Amino acid sequence: MGVLTEIELRDRVRREGPLDTISVEPETLITPAAAQYAREQGIKIVFTDREKGISKEQLKGQKKPEHYTHLDRKNLVPKTHPRIKLRGMLDLLQAVIIKTQVAAQQEGMPQLVGDLEQMLAYARQLLRAEVTGDGVPELRLFGLSEEDIREYSHHPFSKIGVNHLTPSYHMGQVIAELNYLRAVVRQVEVSACDAYLHQDGTPERADIIKALNRLSSAVYVMECKVVAGQYYSRAKGED
Predict the structure, then answer these.
(1) pLDDT per residue over 113-172, tens digit each?
(2) C-alpha span between 49 and 37 (Å, rounded)
(3) Does 123 lie in the same domain as 185?
(4) Nearest-angstrom CA–CA distance, 58 and 46
């Protein structure tokens, strides 16, 4: 259990300037001197926690603490909240997809650029669904359904004509970028599990978790197609 003292509160004001609100953990002990100083300075002490955050009703129009952000239209949470971390990872995913598109364009793989553009649009849908609570549509990439993608990733030789890959620098820049992209997708999936798995192991947003799992398989399929030579343009092959 923490303690908020007058000295600590005065130090916060000295460092950060005038405060409208200060948030503390639910079991924090507020010393009488700290409570009196807060009243004198017009500082509202708000009890919160990592998951529930602060409602706009609690703030009543006062300035939002800088270390808080909107979880939805009604509630603010610390920026360390698992769902806010997930949104940051989904932002990172989009950035890595675009970086991979640049490498694919430079290597003369316009079809791969297009497939990654489809993936980028889907990643943006995932972020929107996380924020709004809307459902996630089934993933379809390069003409394949989710189950097709899973089948291709499990049996690349029969479906694509190459054995399972162990990526290395010998395979070039595009494979390196795709391999990194796949690793990022897996990290986003872990973040989704942190955000949505209940203590009993049941998921709150199984659709998002499943979609991310299939996305990592889709990236692996792209890697196999690159190695199989399916993404090079005709002009590239003639050079």
Answers:
(1) 999 999 999 999 999 999 988 899 888 888 899 899 999 999 999 999 999 999 999 999
(2) 23
(3) yes
(4) 8
CATH number at residue 107: 1.20.1200.10
In three-state secondary structure terms, 75 is: strand
Read off φ and ψ for residue 12, nearest 5 degrees. -65, -45
CA distances for 157 relative to 15, 19, 97, 146, 161, angstroms: 62, 63, 25, 19, 4
User: Cα–Cα distances in Å, from 215 out to 9, 97, 161?
Assistant: 47, 12, 21
Chain segment 31-60, per-residue pLDDT in tens: 989 889 988 888 888 766 555 555 555 555
Question: What is the reported pLDDT for 29?
Answer: 85
For residues 81 and 89, the answer to whether their CB atoms sit within 8 Å is no
Q: Round to whole Å and give the CA distance between 15 and 46.
A: 20
The answer to whether 23 touches 48, Cβ cutoff 8 Å, is: yes
Token reading at 71? 């979880």
Strand bridging mode 75-78 / 3-4: unpaired
Neighbours of 215 (CB within 10 A): 27
Listed residues 31, 47, 77: the one ending a domain: 77
